[in-house]
Structures are given as structure tokens and as C-alpha cells.
Design a protein that fits this description.
With about 140 residues, the chain is of the alpha/beta class. Helix content is about 40%, strand content about 20%. Helix 2 (about 55-65) links the parallel strand 2 and strand 3 (about 70-75).
């Protein structure tokens, strides 16, 4: 299984460049809710790979607290084209945390589904099938229950 999580809501560039953009309070709440929802859904992640950009790495860190998984920074997720299947190979069930439009393009490439990932949203892929696309509000509702 591959899980694609788009980073949470982030502040505008404060002059330090796009890579340094931090999560807003809303983005932190989205990230925490994503991890709690995944845990409540019984999702077991073996590996978490994240873009090194601050907003994505922080999203991964907050989400993975509930999953008990360390976060590994992967430059390709933040700065290059990447293949989720290739990155996840041999790593078990993998959570990738990154950016648009790359996340939606990966879902389309792997499954053929034409989607748009929302900030803080989660796509669940089983081989070449899109099993679920959860919006941040869906994840928050699951996390609350």
C-alpha cells in the first residue's frame, strides 16, 4: 500500500524562499488529524518518506507521531520527478508526504484517476487502484471519533 499525504496549510513565503515555508496552525491541525485518522483506521505504515521542504517534513513529523514511524527526508519528493512505487519498493506500506501538483500527478500516473489533492488530504493506493481519497475535513472527522 502507498499513502500519499499532501502537506498541510502553509504560510506564504516570508522572504526565506519556498522551501522554508512553515505550517500554519491550521496546517499543524490538519497534519495531526491525518495521523490520528490513519491510526484510527488501522493503517500501519512501515516507512514515511517526506519532502525536505519545511511544510512537508513538518506535516510528516506531526502525522507520524500517531503512527509511531520515523520520517526520512527524500530530496526527490521535494525537488525532482519521482516514482512512488520505486521509492516504496522493499519498504513495506509507505507514506509519502509532498506537494502539488506532484501528488495528484502520481495518483494519475499509477491509477489513471484524475484527482486534485487538497492541502492535508490523503490518497490511499493499492497497487494501481485508488482505494480512497480523503479530504482534510474527512480526516479531521475520523480523528475526532
Amino acid at each position: 500500500m502507498i499513502y500519499l499525504l499532501r502537506h498541510g496549510d502553509a504560510e506564504p513565503d516570508q522572504g526565506a524562499g519556498d522551501a522554508a515555508r512553515r505550517l500554519t496552525e491550521k496546517g499543524e491541525a490538519q497534519s495531526i488529524a491525518a495521523g490520528l485518522a490513519m491510526a484510527r483506521l488501522g493503517i500501519n505504515v512501515d516507512t514515511c518518506l517526506a519532502s525536505p521542504r519545511v511544510r512537508a517534513f513538518d506535516t510528516a513529523t506531526l502525522a507520524c507521531r500517531a503512527l509511531g514511524v520515523p520520517v526520512e527526508s527524500v530530496d526527490a519528493i521535494g525537488y525532482d520527478d519521482y516514482d512512488s512505487l520505486e521509492l516504496a519498493a522493499g519498504r513495506g506500506d509507505t507514506l509519502l508526504v509532498g506537494h502539488e501538483p506532484d501528488m495528484s500527478m502520481e495518483v494519475a500516473r499509477i491509477t489513471g484517476a484524475n484527482i486534485k489533492m487538497k492541502k492535508g488530504g490523503l490518497a490511499i493506493l493499492d497497487r494501481n487502484i485508488l482505494k480512497a481519497l480523503l479530504r482534510p475535513q474527512d480526516l479531521a472527522a475520523i480523528a475526532r471519533n
